[in-house]
Each structure stands twice: as C-alpha cells, then as structure tokens.
Amino acid sequence: MEALIRTFAVNETKSIISKAIKRYAAELGSRIVENQLTIRLDKDGNVLFHRCFLYKEVEPQTFNQILGVKFDMKQREQIAIPFMQNAILKLAQENGIENFEDIKIYCFTVEGSPKNVLMYAYHKNEKLMQITWNYLFAD
Q1: What predicted TM-score, i.e. pTM, was given to this entire model?
Q2: What residues does 40 pair with on adjacent strands?
Q3: CB 33 within 8 A of CB 26
C-alpha cells in the first residue's frame, strides 16, 4: 500500500509541476524553460512554493494555485507535502546545514521535454545536488 501511495504521489506531483510550469509560460507569453517553481520550508517547517521566472522568485503559490484549482478534491497536497518536508530536512542533515530554510529545490523542464521535470537543490546560491523523484519521495 505504501508503495502504491508513493507511486501515485510521484506521478501526480510530476504532472502537476509540469502543467504549472507550462501554464506560467502561457500566462507570460514566455518559453517553458524560462519558468520554474521552487519548494522550500519556512522556519517552522511549513512547505512554501514560489513561481519563478529566469530562476528569480516572483510570486508565492499555494498548492491549489499550482494545481490551477480552488479546491483539490483528490487531496494531493496531503500526500505530497510530508515527502517534501522530509526531503528538505534530509538534505539539511546530509549536508550539515543548520538552517533548513536556506535550502531551495528548483523544479524546471528542459527544452523539448516539458513533461520531464528536473529538480536541483541549492543552499543559498550553491548547488547541492540533483534531486531525483525517488529521493523526494523516499521514506
């Protein structure tokens, strides 16, 4: 059952982020690769999302805004958020980073492959590592 939930979470989250980035590009009349989404934690450990343009955060987003809905009937946020929190906390621990709120995960697509969402973790402005979907949704 746990593996089923994890597979659902990975597939849904990847699709949600890909669609959001495409929607951001359409709204701005820009190229898909110029738009990104960041995931990070505030000092209390709550997940924050920001819409980005050319890797600069321009607007905070709620999970429902990322989905493009007013209410999420599938409650995908309840499934995805704990995994995101754990991944950022694990990154902080593995890299000896005291302030986990200084870590950001940039989600983006590459030219010609908008459904392929890549993720890289940064501590302040220093790249830590590429984040795989297995890492993001690990135990």
Answers
A1: 0.90
A2: 48, 104
A3: no
